[in-house]
Amino acid sequence: MYKQLSDNIRYIKGVGPSRAQIFQKLGIENIEDLFYYFPRRYEDRTNITEIAELKPGELQTVKGKVLGFGQRLSYHKKGLKIFEIIVEDKSARLHCVWFNQPYLRNYLKASKEVLLYGKVDFRGKGFQMQNPEFEIIDDALRAENLNYGRIVPVYSLSEKLSQRVLRKIVKSALDGYLSLAADIIPFDVRRRHNLLNIAEAISNMHFPRDALHQDTAFRRIVFEECFLLQLIFGLRRRILNMTAGIIHKPDEGVLAQFIKGLAFELTDAQKRVIQEIKQDMAGKRPMHRLLQGDVGSGKTVVALYACLIAVSAGYQAAFMAPTEILVEQHYKNITGQLSGLKKNGAQIRTGLLTGSLNTKDKEKICRQIKNGEIDIVIGTHSLIQQQVEFKNLGLAVIDEQHKFGVYQRLNMQSKGVNPDCLIMTATPIPRTLAMTIYSDMDISTLDQMPKGRLAVKTYVFTEEKRQWVYDFIKDNLKNSRQCFMVYPIIDESEKLDLRAAKSMYEDLSKSVFKDYKLGLVHGRLKQKQRDLIMRKFKEGKIDMLVSTVVIEVGIDIPNATVMVIEHAERFGLAQLHQLRGRIGRGGYQSHCILLAESSSEESALRLKAIAEEPDGFKIAERDLEIRGPGEFFGRRQHGIPELRVNVLTDLAAIKIAKDEASGLLDADPALSLRQNQGLVNTLRKRFPEYEKLITA
Ligand code: ADP
Ligand code: MG
Questions:
Q1: Quick one: CA dihedral 408, 692, 307, 316, positive or negative?
Q2: pTM for the whole thing?
Q3: Dist. CA 399 → ligand 2 center (Å)
Q4: Whose CA is nearest to atom 5 of ligand 1?
């Protein structure tokens, strides 16, 4: 038997059936998967800081011995179990604590030598490291030469696999198989941009010789990911350009009547974007357009207009949103705005499809969709389920696109014969950046807010103002308004020194706000549960909603006039802006209060910027400048396919990859040349849903 990268991971020494199962949970089945399972970070163990030299607030590695008398388990006042040790090196002693991990006492025993990785902060008695990562140093660790005296990879792991075991397994996989890694990036492209070959890149991603090698390796991997993505986008665009879509011939009378019936006048931006969409929909290529606009810029009415273009031309439209509560809100608004609007003398019919409908209602609505008795159906993910068939879908609208994967979007489109597609996002991104990362779409931007909207007033306060803030909230609640309190974490155990949603909810409902009804939502609640509480808040049955950042974008709660964000310095600017977009949706003046520790000057500046700047696009630009695109987009890559590394750390690479991909496609539009077959195979493997594009 020849060795292959597709060999099961069990071919590696040390991987038996039970470990193979653990690997499977990490998404690793074969050698190639393992090669591309890159470290979460690296630790430079050639460079260990002495305890006396530790700088507060920085991530650093120290090495020391656990002191016998230092090991202790105690209880925090809120019932947290705290395990603490004292570690000593030749320069000083260091206090380390872990929360709710009492079992650590079985590992971190007296006189053990340990490596610790974390941040020190000054608390009460002296310097302390909270919840540091650790590894125990023993002869085995020293012997392997993978864990010590070098730059060491640190992986994301499940509890059942140790760093040390994984390093060893990766090493033997590299030894046995690395020579089989074939380069899919054409040689001339590699040469033009000075890219490492793939074998060296993989090797240096896991066990970098030094920081420079790691960096070069990372650049190569990022490029590869970007290149594949841009090839897919490029193929997709080319295919779309050759595809016959629907030429919508709308009934101008219906459209004019709709505009006349609106309770407001469209902004110039809305008018412009409507024209862009109208032109696309009348054209013979399928529309594939991203509509971006700040929270409250009025995307829904634009989307509804697009739906009416389809409907008045004799087609159906589907409007998909990520949660039931959002879908219900859209359904109510849309149905309201369409009442009295007729095409060919008959009322335009809307329908609602969500997962919580009972079977009978679901069957009924599916039948109506299939028979064409519904013109516009508004629904959740349920819309892309198999049993939903349309009579003649002309337009698919997808709201809050980052909540849906690319494949879900494609599935929605596959419900019709090349329908037009409008994708909406409330996360403003500077235009050139949007064009780079969403290069398979055309982009429309609503860069203007409706007139007469009261901008949310934003303030930055420190802790001393807390009582004043509570009083201010109470005044609002007394006037029957509602309020949000937002926290960066759910539980205190995550970080002891931060206020957390759960405990603050308990505190506040017992003390300051005991006369009011409070609700709690956070990310560990099931979506159903979250929806239920949000609904109660929307209906006014809850006065104050305590939450983490999970509160949905897009939900209208006109009566909510105050939002307090605690530890605001911990949030990104764009995120703060998104959060405050949940208030200020009614006719009342709304207030957003940022409670922040007066930490660094930089964070004070950032908060000042958000207090003064109401425009989401400008804020996004600032945020990008400050944090760079990797942080800005976070791990969730905004609806682009799952990638192996965060490519957004390197926008220049994306640009180059885009040009190279398009050059390659110019030369070989269907990727049929023999030298490109490696690429084709990889694309097939990595993006299974795109198969039809590649073979078309
Ligand atoms: P978003 O872009 O965040 O989805 P919506 O479409 O929900 O915003 O619109 C927010 C609110 O603004 C809705 O109540 C909508 O009816 C209203 N609206 C939309 N366009 C205008 C306009 N041109 N003038 C006044 N109000 C508008
Ligand atoms: Mg919206």
A1: negative
A2: 0.77
A3: 7
A4: 298
